[in-house]
Each structure stands twice: as structure tokens, then as C-alpha cells.
Amino acid sequence: MQRVPQQPAQYDRLIALPHIAGLLVALAILHLVAHSNFLLFHTLVEMLRIVALTGLFALAWHTRHWSGNSFLGVAGTAAIAIAGLELLHTLSYKGLAIFPTADANLPTQLWIAFRGLEALAFLVAALWIRRAVHYGWALTGFGLLGLALLVLVFSGYFPDSFVEGSGLTRFKIIAEYLIALCFALTMILLFRRREQFAAPVHHLLQASLLFNVFATLAFTQYISVYGFANELGHYFLFLSAYLIYRGVLVTGVVSPFNLLFRNLKMHEEHLAELVSERTAQLEQSESLRQTFFQHSPAIILLTDADGRLTLANPAFEKLANRRQDQILGKTLHDVLSPELADTAARHVHESRQAGRPVTVTETVNIDGHSRIFETIHFPLPGLAASDFGRGIIATDVTEHRQAQARIEFLAHFNALTALPNRNHFEELVNNRLAQGRPAGQRQMLAYIDLDNFKDINDTFGHVMGDNLLREIAGRLKSAFHTQHSVIGHSAGDEFMIFLGPVQSEDEINREIRTLYDLFASPFEVSGQLLTITISVGVAVSPSDGEDFSVLFRNADTAMYAAKAEGRNTHRRFTQAMEQKALERQGLLAKLRGALGRGELYLNYQPQFDLATRQIVGAEALLRWCHPELGAISPERFIPIAEESGLIVEIGQWVILEACRQAAAWQRAGLPAITMAVNLSAIQFQRPDLCESVAGILATTGLPGQNLELELTESVLVGDVERVVNTIKTLKQQGIHLTVDDFGTGYSSLAYLQRFAVDKLKIDQSFVRNMATDESSSSVVRAIIRLAHSLGLKVVAEGVETAGQTEQLARLTCDEVQGYHFGKPMDAEEFTALLGSRTTPA
């Protein structure tokens, strides 16, 4: 009954001329029976209705698990209660003598009961058409209502409906008019919601309800239960039942089978076409296999049972430095070095013994260079049980492994100083804290910030600044190299030292003096003597925190207190420093109402395709302008928003506003671009994230393929199953996913293979230094190669010079963004830029 795909005309015409002819014959027969034996006529009509109602219930009940048809659900579950009351009405009819004490009043009362229940059921079904139906509750409700009506009738509390000699009572006539009104209201509701039905079904339902109205009006006119008005009313009832039968039961049961058999013929005809197509596909597939074999970078070869080569691709010819005719028919020992041939023979023997393929990773020496190969050795069964050939597929993964090793290193260590990065340092410190906690050991964390380090970068350049950081790391490692110390390089000009156990305040002060002594003498960097001071914050466990996060926060608070007091000093964390936390609370209070007051807005930074230099996307960047504090840096308020949970509401608004703007550009006829939006870890963990994003896309009309969500690497670490499911659901909406700041956190080949991301975004710290620092350049090169080997695109952010642009182009980076191409700008400026499509040289 729900709207179905368009079918041929013969399936939509549920009432045809043969049906009408048969219906007229049936009416004629019923007319003859009525004039011969009215009791038989009444019984036949009522039983036909009962059968139709029972069929309606059976169809609704047995399709309840997969049918979404609420109208059928309500009307069908009520049908069994209606049929029960109608059966009692039929059996109690005057003349059957099944209820010997009953007069014509009893069947008339039962008539009003089941007709009222029927009218109510159809009206409720029309009202409930857009809601889900709980079949158990519906069946129970209508069943109890029918039982209540039955009790009222047989207990004598139901009003009289017929009086011998007088005819219908006033109650019966009014009840009939109310029943007719219910059917009429149902017709109006179904007409207003006709889109829920196939057109033929809707017409039959309306006709059935109309005949119900006619029948009800006829039943207000008779005086004798054998009178003409009663007879006419039953003709209308018969027509109504027949139309329900055609509209619901035939549509729900018979027509699907007709369609099935019609489709079988269509499938038979289509099968021949498929065979022809598959033959062509097989021929094409064979051609593709040959092309793959000839051009595959992997080494592919087959040998017979005697170890003689029967097949070798060009990659093996290159390895062996021989032509095809010099290889086929030879053994591996004839064409390879003894070392390589012996290694291959050993693995082939292992594969033959195991009776299955053997995969090995091995380092071999080729022309004086070490290369890493991932090799599969597999047996090839011959005609005899012992007749085995062999196959080898070897892939050179040297560059891939080197890139992976580099990225794995960067996941745990700072690329510049080779010291543990923030994440790895935290892991090491938490382990030390856990070890010392049972004994109540005091352990200290010193958070070090270089004073005025920016001045050195600005004066001598970033290369000199980077070299200074390496020198500082070297002095720290030389002074604190015991098994009780951990040194980390958090980021930029910040270092951390964890020491323990420390038994007394004197020991703490002694370690701090040692630290300051390291910076007492100048650093010689590239022929220059550089002097720098430090500000240090110290927190001691367990009094200042029992885990790294608390200890670090308090050491950070103490360090900023040292800076505020003139730098070149240290401070121990105290409770008085909680004032800083209060200031943060003040900023948080202002942030809470910022969205409602319209203080938050978005800027857009363009992203360019590096090959075509055309705008392909924009990154939405959140900004805050407070009426008293002015512009507030995102680095200040976004962490507060994340800590407080406000990032959920703000992030929702950012996605909505960014999608709205992107859709507006498309509607204005501007080129369709990808809108990139940063997604915080807190937002990603929300169970309603996918539903929320889908709602925004539906509201704004932006296609999913034009939205790109940027995730930090930390988002992808945790509940793997949850992350996989969330990413899968987002991808099903066509949304693109990018790993932001790749290379600065949990960079791992494992999660790139597990999660279906589309792009990697290289952190600007690597891009900024790549022209002057070979380490940064190597990182960028490794990330691009790794991404392309996995079929991912690469975006470089923070591109500020033409030199960086050209170097990224040589490395085949896909997309770029940065001040060299365009600063973050408001929507109006970006609209003009998008319209002009201008790019820097």
C-alpha cells in the first residue's frame, strides 16, 4: 500500500472490466437470494466481510517485521476484533435461533458495536499513517475495546437499537450518522495524505469508504430487519468489502507474485546479455593481467618441478640483468648470485614442506646496497602428488620501510632534537610515577621555557635557532643522563625534565642549580656565541599531582609565574598560583555567551591545487572578537572551550555556518569547492556526531562530497571499533576526512591502513623549515611518499614563500595553503577571490 516503483499499466489497474462484470453477476445472485431467503442473503454478505477482515488481519500481522505501512498496521490489527463482533452479529440474527432468547435488538446492538469499532479503526489508521506502529499494543488495544463493547451488549448496559413494531431507536440512528461521519473524515484525511499510497490503491480505499458511508446512511432508514433499506445497505457493505479485498489483499499478496513471474522472464532474457558481457570482461581481464605482469614493479617468477624458470617478468630481468631468452629454462643459481639463490631455495623448501605459501621479509645485498624485500614463496602443484613447481613474488619495500620507520620515530621523538616528544614523554613519566607511588617517592617535573627565543630566530634566522635547540638538547642529555631522569622536548622552545626520586628540598634546589649552570656559559652555534636564559616551573609529586597531566599543568602554571616575574628564574608551584586558573575561568565565563552575542565568526583560508594553481577548497577558521578584550587568539580560547565542553556547541555552529556559506557560494554560481572544518577530539567522541553532520548537510543543502573534516592524530587513537564505525558512517555520507598536523603526534602506518582517511595534512613546522633543514625536508618527503603509496592526497599548510611552493611541487605535493597563497579572510573577501580564481605566481 505504500508507494512502489512504477509498474506496467496492467498491474496498476486493480479493477478492470472483467472484475466489474463479475461483481455485477455476484450482486444479481445476492439479489435473487435476498428475495428467496433474506436470512441466507444476510449471512452470505456478513461472512464475505468476515473473510475479508480476517485476510486483512493476516496480511498486516505477517508483514509487521518488514512492512512500513502504518495504515495497514492499524486497520489490520483492528480487523480481527471487528470480524469477531461481526461474527456474533451474524450468528445472533433473527431467525438463526442460535441465541433463542434474543430478539432483533441484540444483532442491531452488535451491529452498532462492530461498525463503530470499524469506523474508529479506519480513522485512527488515517491519523497514524506517518508514525510507527507497535503491533502488539495495537492488537491489545483494539481487542480490549471489542471485548468491552461485547460486555456492554450482553450485560444489558448497551442502549437499545431496535424495538419490535417501532423500528430503529433514536440512539441507533444517531450512532449510524456518527459512524458515517467517521468514514467521511477518514476519506478527507486519506485524500490529504494520498502521496502515501499508490494511486490505484488510494482510489479503491476511497471508494470502499464511500460505500461504507452509503451503507451506514441506508441503515438509518429501515423499520424491519428484512426491509429494502436493510437489503440495500448490505449491497453497499458487500461492495465495500470487495474494494478492500482488491485494494489491500490483492495488492499485498497477489500482485507481488504476478510481478515476480513477469520478472523471471525478463531475467531470462537478460541472462544471455550477461553471458556476452562476461565473456568480453574475461577477455579484457586477461589483457589487464598481462599488462600488470609486464609492468608490475614487483618481481614475479615461476619454476617447474626441476627448479627451471618457466615465467619471469621484466622486473626480474632487471634484477638478474639478463634478457628473457637468457632466463627461461635456467635455474635461479644460473642467473642470480649464490647468496640470493640459496636464500630463495631455502624459503621455497619451507613453503613445500608446509604445503602453503610462506611470506618473509629479508634484507639482501644488491650491487653493494642493502634492499628490503617482502617476498611470497608458494608451491605450484603438478599432475603427480610430488610434482611441485614454485612461484615467487618479491616486492622492494626499502623506501616504504624507511618512511615508516621515520614516521614511527617522529611519533615518539622530536625531529629536531631526537628527544622524546610530549606524548612519549608523558607515557614515560606516568610509568615512573606508577613505579614510585607505592613507596611514596617524591619526584619532580621541571618545565623549561627559553626566554626570548623568538628574538634569536628573528635576528639570526630559524636555522640558527634550530641549531641552538640541538645544542641545548645536547647539554641537557649530558647533565641528566642517569636512569632516574627523563628529558623531553615538548615543542618549539620548551623542554621538560623529570627527576626522581628526590628526597629533600635541598636535592630539588641542587638539581635546579645544575640546570641553570648549563645555561651560564654561551652556546657556540655556527661560529656565533649565543647566550640565552630560561624560565622554569617546578612541580613535585605527589603533593603537586599524582599523574602527568596534573603535574604538567601545575609546572606550566609555575613556569608562567616565573616569566611574569622577569624571566631567568624558577618557581615552585604553590596554591597561590591558582589565580591563573581563576583568570581562565573568567575567560570561560565570557566565552559561554559569545556565540549567542554574535562575537564568534569564521574566516576562510583558500586551499590550492598545486598542479593547476586553482582554488579547490577553503579551511574554516574560528575567530573571537570580544567587545572589551578585542580579538582573542584561538590558542587561548579553543583549549578552554574543549576543557569546558563548550566546543560541542561551538563546533556544531562552525560546521553549520561553514556548510551554509559553502552552499551559498554554490547557489551563487561560484565553483564548487571543498569546505574543510577542524573537528575536535571531544566532538568526534560524541555518539550523535554522524547524525548531527547529516542533519546539517540536509539543512544547508551542501553535498557531502564538498565537506571535509580535519581530525588530529590523537582522535584516531583509542577505541578502534568506535573510530572505525564513526569514520565509516561519515564516509557513507560522502564526507572527506583529513589527518591534520600529520607527523607531530601518533603518526602511524597502522592507523592509516585501518582508517579510511582521504588526505594527510603536513604540519606547518615541517614546511617552514624544509628549505633550510634537511631533517624537515626528509620528513615532508617521507610523508608525501607514504601518503601516495596508500592512495592518499597530501596538503601542506603554512606555505609562505615561493621557494617552499616550488620545493613542494618537486615532491609532488597535491594541495597547499598558507600566506603565500592567501591569508584567512572573511566571506566577502573570499567570495571575490573565488570569483576571480587568482593565484600567486
Summarize the structure in words:
The chain is of the alpha/beta class and 841 residues long. 55% of the residues lie in helices and 16% in strands. The protein has 29 helices and 23 strands. The strands form five sheets. An eight-stranded mixed beta barrel has the order 15-16-18-19-20-21-22-23, surrounded by four helices. The longest helix is centred in the first third of the chain and has 68 residues, at 228-295.
Key features?
8-stranded mixed beta barrel, 5-stranded antiparallel sheet, disordered N terminus, 23 strands, 841 residues, single chain, alpha/beta
Helix content: 55-70%
Low-confidence stretches: 1-12
Distance between the termini: 63 Å
* Main beta sheet strand tally, sense and closure: 8 strands, mixed, barrel
Shape: elongated
Per DSSP, the total helix count is 29
Global Rg: 41 Å
Structural class: alpha/beta
Average pLDDT score:
84
Number of strand elements: 23
Give the strand order of the largest sheet, numbering strands 1, 2, ... along the chain: 15-16-18-19-20-21-22-23
**Strand share of the residues?**
15-25%
Topology (elements, then pairings):
Layout: H1 9-12, H2 17-36, H3 38-62, H4 70-91, H5 105-127, H6 135-155, E1 162-163, E2 167-168, H7 170-192, H8 199-218, H9 228-295, E3 299-303, E4 309-312, H10 314-320, H11 332-335, H12 338-354, E5 358-366, E6 369-381, E7 388-396, H13 398-412, H14 422-436, E8 443-450, H15 453-460, H16 462-479, E9 485-491, E10 494-499, H17 505-518, E11 523-525, E12 528-530, E13 534-541, H18 548-564, E14 570-572, H19 578-592, E15 600-609, E16 615-626, E17 630-632, H20 634-644, H21 646-667, E18 674-679, H22 681-685, H23 689-700, E19 707-712, H24 720-732, E20 736-742, H25 749-754, E21 759-762, H26 764-769, H27 774-789, E22 793-796, H28 802-810, E23 815-816, H29 827-836
Parallel strand pairs: 13-14, 16-18, 18-19, 19-20, 20-21, 21-22, 22-23
Antiparallel strand pairs: 1-2, 3-4, 3-7, 5-6, 6-7, 8-10, 8-13, 9-10, 11-12, 15-16, 15-23, 16-17
Helix pairs in contact: 2-3, 3-4, 3-9, 4-5, 4-6, 5-6, 5-7, 7-8, 8-9, 13-27, 15-16, 19-20, 20-21, 21-23
